[in-house]
Design goal:
Blueprint lengths: L8 H9 L7 E9 L2 E9 L9 H9 L5 H22 L14 H16 L6 E2 L2 E2 L4 E4 L2 E4 L3 H6 L5 E2 L10 H10 L2 E2 L5 E10 L10 E9 L7
Parallel strand pairs: 3-8, 4-7
Antiparallel strand pairs: 1-2, 5-6, 9-10
């Protein structure tokens, strides 16, 4: 969604390259989801089978060429995930294995979001309430209800709802990005829209387009939130 709203893919690639992930490459394409166009960004990298602890990811970020703002935002997001995982598993945060969340795709999602937000000069993020979906999903620990234990913990204080869409609509990675960075939650505020970006997910659903919409603009002075 941020790429579609104007973030050059090259800017993301440059920042992510400084994480020294072997073979990492971003590609973008235009796709159609339920009749609407959107931008699909895919991540290519060499296969890996290792689990990372929080300090491994923190070291990657600290040693990178990311800006101070990007490092701070990414660090807070990963810290929130680590605290949630530690709580649901009943272990110290230093012993948390990030499993799926520590996978390269999730690192790219989180760090890429931080790069993109700074590139666009975003000062405030307002999110709609999150539709989490329903049903069950499989992970490294077994089969769990949606939203999963970590996502549910991360989403403390965030307005959520579940309607008639079966599937995991909010992952721990997405939950952490929104829960950490959003200043408030509401419907679209009074604003002057400047750009709109549509980012496509990989999964398809029968009743709605799997697309995230980012609306960028200036909030009217009398409608400032947060």
């Amino acid at each position: 969604a941020l790429v579609d709203a104007g973030v050059p893919l090259e800017a993301l690639q440059s920042g992510l390259d400084s994480l020294s992930i072997p073979g990492l490459r971003l590609n973008s394409s235009e796709v159609i989801r339920k009749g609407y166009r959107a931008c699909k960004v895919t991540v290519e990298h060499e296969p890996e089978h290792k689990h990372r602890h929080l300090h491994h990811i923190t070291e990657m970020i600290d040693k990178s060429q990311l800006t101070a703002v990007q490092k701070e935002l990414a660090g807070r997001i990963f810290q929130r995930i680590g605290e949630a995982e530690a709580k649901v598993h009943g272990i110290p945060i230093r012993k948390v294995h990030f499993h799926e969340v520590g996978a390269i795709d999730s690192i790219v999602d989180i760090v890429g979001a931080c790069i993109g937000l700074e590139a666009l000069g975003i000062k405030q993020i307002i999110s709609s309430p999150l539709h989490v979906g329903f049903g069950t999903f499989n992970c490294a620990h077994g089969t769990y209800p949606i939203p999963g234990p970590a996502a549910t913990e991360i989403l403390r204080g965030v307005p959520v709802y579940a309607k008639d869409i079966e599937g995991e609509l909010v992952t721990p990675t997405g939950a952490a990005i929104v829960a950490t960075l959003a200043k408030s939650y509401s419907q679209l505020p009074a604003m002057r829209i400047e750009k709109v970006g549509y980012g496509a997910g990989t999964r398809t659903y029968p009743k709605f387009p799997n697309v995230l919409r980012a609306v960028l603009g200036e909030i009217e002075a009398d409608a400032i939130i947060g």
